[in-house]
Amino acid sequence: MKGRKPAIAAAGTFFGLFSYSQLYQNFLFSRITPSSERADEQEWVASSNSWVDRKVCTWFGFCGLSHLDESRWSNWGKETTDAKSRTSDYDDQHKIDLSEFWNSAHNARPEDWSDDEHVLREIPKYVTDHAPYIYLYSGEQFWPCDIAEHLIHTTPHLNYTPLQASSDHPNLTNLNDLNKWGRFVYLQSDDNVEDRPDWLGGETNIPSAPKGTDHLPGTSGDPASPDNDYLEDVAGEHAEWWNAGIGDTKDKGGVRSNTALTTATGPAPTEPPRKSKPSIHDEIWQPELLRRRTGRKVVGGRSDAPATLIVVEKGDGVVDAFWFFFYSYNLGNTVFNVRFGNHVGDWEHTVVRFHNGIPKAVFFSEHNFGEAYTWDAIEKIGKRPVGFSATGTHAMYATAGVHPYVLPGGILHDVTDRGPLWDPTLNMYAYTYDYQADRLRSSSLTPQAPVEWFYFQGRWGDKFYPLSDPRQYRFVGQYHYVTGPLGPRFKNLGRKQICQGNNECLLKKNRVSSRIDRIKRFPSLGEGEEMTEEDRLRFVGPE
User: Are 129 and 382 in contact (CB under 8 A)?
Assistant: First the structure.
């Protein structure tokens, strides 16, 4: 009998593995793998040089187990001549005034505009009067970035093949020319992102500590002080402003990566311990932190990374003001100390909806969806709403603290706090957008701002790395590195309700959400953003 036990155990193990393999291959794989990736699956798996890795990946869905060794991800200590050249190029780039790239629009002379054109390009004053403030995370390592600088450090690729020389970078006025190669073009980093090149972190774009308060008349020292200029709109979802316009599509924007932070209960730095760099903002922001503690006026700082404002009229007095924020890198969160969902390029946004010039609601983008709140529910500084950017992922929230999602117990969560306060109005480029005609116009506030970059159909970061890349692994459909995001054009700017998708949209009247309500909101994990079929047909056409 004793001799049979090992045989029974071995048979049981074999049967269990065989059953799971069949379940994964015949049922799970098709459900957890986006259709756009299934076509590349065979080639992606075959890229691995390890026979064992290929078989374990195909049979069980655990791909790149040997790639969990972080020491293989970086080129530290092995800097090549090319890498040194790139570092030199970066230093030289800092001598370039990036504003030159932003002042290159065609037909940019307001004196040449007709009266009707002036109206179409006007940004109402109430939009900037009620622009959001953004609290960035105090331990952030990947700060806001300028898309003009991002283009300097990336090269267009298609199917892991460069489309042009790495020295021939696209710019804001010709980026849309890449559309001739189709919608699968992507901007690949010229550097190994695991080496954490300076441009990727955007540390020079940390909002500057404010030196004065003249630009914020009437702000309150209490960051939670309400704006009493407007009466509460009790109608909420039943108000006439709730469903506005004709809508863009049924659901645009696709699926963004949903990845988790460490299981620690408190805020933690986003950078892995292997590379610890002193933060330059702790000291310069101490006077501002003291102002908050003593109840004095809170003032937002200016970032060298410009925000993008896109104003969309929906008719019947309804106007949506989209505030887009760009980061060159998204550091995914961790599950049991395994990180998922990193990607190059990251677009986040906040929307303020107005009705007849009066703010009614605010939407914060969070991973693949987001949360909508009544104007009265949102924390404000004076007349302006306050948002919080999560560490690493930059997901937007209405409160500071720990934000669990996907799994119970807070295993997956984002973290926000009151780090540097960013005032996007101090450095922005403003546009108006006709969502029915798909026409973006530079506004009268920034008439020189180019529009061509907006029409780029590709991805703003690397394509998910092949299995042969030591930086890549995938466990049950969830990647360490996912494909970079689509741009603002694909964020459902014509949405009827304020939420990103035109399906269910809950308008919250309280910033404090139940834990369960937040968790069930985000069902996916570690997946890249997908272009919807309606977007493809409308903007790209038949293929």
Answer: no
Quick one: DSSP state of residue 409? G
Tokens 């029974």 belong to residue: 8
- What's the pLDDT band for 525 if we cut at 50, 70, 90? very low
Q: Name the residue with tokens 């308060």.
A: 213
For residues 195 and 172, the answer to whether their CB atoms sit within 8 Å is: no
CA distance 393 to 406: 15
pTM above 0.70, yes or no: yes
Residues near 35 by beta carbon (within 8 Å), at least 6 away in sequence: none
Give yes or no for a contact between 300 and 207, defined as CB atoms under 8 angstroms apart.
yes
Cross-strand bridge partners of residue 433:
440
Backbone angles phi, psi at 53, to 5 degrees: -60, -45
In this structure, what token pair is assigned to residue 68? Answer: 């969990």
Q: Are 333 and 341 in contact (CB under 8 A)?
A: yes
Which DSSP symbol is given to 311?
E
Phi, psi of 281 (to 5 degrees): -90, -15
Which of residues 408 and 241 earns the better pLDDT score? Answer: 241
Whether the CB-CB separation of 358 and 239 falls below 8 Å is answered with no
**290-347 pLDDT tens trace:** 444 444 445 569 999 999 999 999 999 999 999 999 999 999 888 888 888 899 999 9
Cβ neighbours of residue 507 closer than 8 Å, sequence gap 6 or more: 236, 237, 242, 361, 372, 373, 374, 498
Closest-CA residue to 190 (of 113, 283, 85, 263)? 85
Q: At what angle do helices 4-23 and 51-60 cross, to 10 degrees?
A: 70
Query: Which sign, positive or negative, has the C-alpha torsion 310, 446, 306, 149?
Result: positive
CB within 8 A of 278, min separation 6: which ones? none
* Distance (Å, whole) CA 328 – CA 143: 8
Paired tokens of 485: 């995001």
- Whether residue 8 is predicted with pLDDT greater than 80 in this model: the reply is no
- Each domain of the chain, given as residue ranges in start order, spans 15-63, 71-540
Rounded to the nearest 5°, which phi and psi values hold at 77? 80, -5
Q: What are phi and psi of 329, to 5 degrees?
A: -150, 140
